[in-house]
Amino acid sequence: MTDLGHHSVVVIGAGFGGIGASIRLAEAGIEHVILEKAGDVGGTWWANRYPGCRCDVPSHLYSFSFALNPDWSDTYSLQPEIHRYLRRVADEYGVVERVRFNTEVTAARWDDGAKCWRIDTSAGPISADALISAHGFLSEPAVPHFPGIESFTGQVMHSAEWDPSYDVGGKRVGVIGTGASAVQLVPIVQRQAKQLYVFQRTAAWILPHRGRAIRPWERAAYRRVPALQRLVRQLVYLRNEFLILPALLHGKRLDLIRKMALDHLTAQVTDPQLREKLTPTFAPGCKRLTPTNDYLPAIAAANTELVTDGIKELRGDEIVTVDGVARRLDVLVLATGFRVTDNTFPARVVGRSGRTLREVWDDGSMGGYNGTTFAGFPNLFMLAGPNTGIGHTSLVYMIEAQLPYIVGALRHMRDNGVVALDVRPDVQAAYNEMIQRKLRLSVWNTGGCSSWYLDKLGRNSTIWPDYTFNFAKRLKRFDVESYYQEIAPSKARADLVYG
Ligand code: N01
User: If 0-12 CB within 10 Å is exposed, 13-18 middle and 19+ buried, where does residue 347 land?
Assistant: First the structure.
């Protein structure tokens, strides 16, 4: 293994976060390298290649604000198109040449003597003055352990690790899960499979999908008049902020969403018993709302069985439910989501005190400041960190909102000879108290479901509980007064000392 040297900044991950960070760092003249475990850019949009994978956020909103794509072919884009977009942006902005592919970060430790991050990777050690983690919170598949899974004789695939060469045509397929990934892949699989079993633990709120192809003349208009696409993007953004967010945050108009979903169910499923099974028992929005016009008909199709009995074990080529029924399978698809609040990345990051981020979070639950920095972990910045998730709009908006803050911090360090920036614990605690207070009555906390939004202590460590423009406003300026800072001896001034 070779020593990968020292850099001003190391960025982990080349998805939306890492690409956006690299573009902004380059504009600010900040030297950096991106470490990417995969062989291509794209992050989650590279990894998730299951059939039917598309974004349930409108295309015009799901892109960088500075790199709109007038050529989206659909109002809700499919994964290959989003990946192509990210590839193109990364190429055009020179990001690709700054990426070290097939390089996985295995550990990162703050060296308080040298004031730098010492990072171990699968390709060798590397160090940096500052570390930006854009590892993504939906990057580690959650693989539940079912007894017998090791000796299951069929194929097992997680939705986020789909093998594109596997053909489900004419096969007996089992799908576990009914979340955002499952509702997209089930309709495609149902059309091709001989027999499909969908194992549902919790029924999902299925809403009508409003997607449609974008007509050639619309694309031509967006190309010719970019302001037009900006306007459409802004209207979509405002609709989501002012119509959907209040429902989730304050329960306003939840009944309307419930009625819309139940009408959709009634229209698409005629069998009352099946409808009963498909009717959720928690408040809509408590889990991510899933819009689709194809899922319910696929569940009602003759070659599909919706199984609501719990899974007991796998035995040979069979999956056995608690009622003792065994079903033969050729392939088992785990659409079982991601390790979010128990993501392993924080366990690999060691701060000033010698404790990992995971250990710190497990004490007081997950938390940071502005979803970006962490007391005791100097010069560490996280994109899409704790409480930056949103259930109603585009995560790309949140990531972009973080970038001026991070670049502002790095510029401040460079211009003032600051070698360590560490958010004050009291500031971080007050911030998290504000977040939790705002979340208390939200549907994510009170809707009666268990979701990946809540951590093992029942705290909501994932969702930003306010308008997203308020998040952007908060992070517009780097608030140095919220930080302890340490100055390089040659530049130290009396008013800039580590407190
Ligand atoms: O995962 P999920 P996902 N036995 O966690 C079930 C994003 N995303 O991959 O509800 C039986 O939502 C689990 O059951 P239950 C989006 O942010 C975005 O679908 O816990 N079942 C659930 O039904 C989304 O929220 C897009 O009872 C088990 C399912 O598996 C996030 O990714 C598209 C089980 C997991 O659902 C995750 O979505 C796709 C077990 N042991 C995804 N363990 C966009 O379009 C789990 N389940 C942007």
Answer: middle
Residue 150 clears pLDDT 50, i.e. is over it = yes
> Atom 6 in ligand 1: which residue has the minimum CA distance?
177
Domains and their CATH numbers in the chain: 6-41+95-140+339-498 (3.50.50.60), 149-211+235-334 (3.50.50.60)
Pairing of β 318-321 and β 326-328: antiparallel
For the residues 131-144, what does the mean pLDDT come to? 95
Cα–Cα distance measured from residue 61 to residue 16, given in angstroms and rounded to the nearest whole number: 13
For atom 12 of ligand 1, the residue with the nearest CA is 179
Enumerate residues lining ligand 1, CB below 6 A: 55-57, 138, 144, 159, 176-182, 201-202, 288, 311, 335-338, 450, 452
Q: In this predicted model, what pLDDT tens digit does every residue of 418-464 receive, in sequence order?
A: 999 999 999 999 999 999 999 999 999 999 998 999 988 888 999 99
Structure tokens at 54: 């598309």
Torsion over CA: 267, 268, 271, 276 (sign): negative
CA of 46 to the centre of ligand 1 (A): 18
Helices (H), 176-253: 180-192, 216-224, 226-239, 245-250
**Centroid of ligand 1 to alpha carbon of 120 (angstroms):** 31
Confidence (pLDDT) at 499: 36
Q: Which atom of ligand 1 is nearest to the CA of 395?
A: 48
Of 462, 467, 451, whose CA–CA distance to 136 is shortest?
462
CA 114–ligand 1 middle distance (angstroms): 42
